[in-house]
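Continuing the batch. This is chain 6 of the set; chains 1 through 5 are on the previous pages. Same settings as before, nothing changed between runs. Recording input and output for traceability.
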Amino acid sequence: MTVATLSLEQQFVLDDVGWDFYESILKQVGDRHIFVTYDQGTLELMSPSFKHDKRGRLLGLLINVVAEELGIPMQGAGSTTFRRKELERGLEPDQCFYVQNVKRIIGKGKINLKIDPPPDLAIEVEISRRMVKRLPIYEALGVPEIWRDDGRRVRVFVLNDEGHYEQTTSSPSFPALPVDQINQLVSLADETDEMNWMRRVRHWVKSNLVK
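Output for chain 6:
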């Protein structure tokens, strides 16, 4: 077993574990706020820091405000566990959303990737280095769009025809929202509380994006 304890977040990695063990860990973790990543025999457990959760929540709130003000149908799926046994891979995004495929999951209480689509957009907060690389797992699961946040800026990546992520200048899910503006809006959260920040975001969206 490999164990790493970091200043911001705690990570624990187990090597050479089977799928059944992974699923038993998921059951044991339950609704505890612990991220469990599994990649073909390697399992990582990570307890997120306050900064990690704050950044993920801000991006989630930003997406909700933009979708509401622009009238974009959308369903948030939070940190749902997405896994495929035949691929031996699974993880929980920091936040994720159905946008293009929202109609396909309306009314569902459970997502089964054998028949249901993966989320259209996932947020991946990368404040500290994860010991298990997560982008190849997202690629294998077929998540079309990732917002990667290193704690300073957000970059948008889309899945290309070869099945790999490449950086882009606009979000396919929210093309009216410039990527540079995402970073500017998130940075405003350092100046005030969450409620006032949301009001400022909403004001900007109404003034600049709503036609």
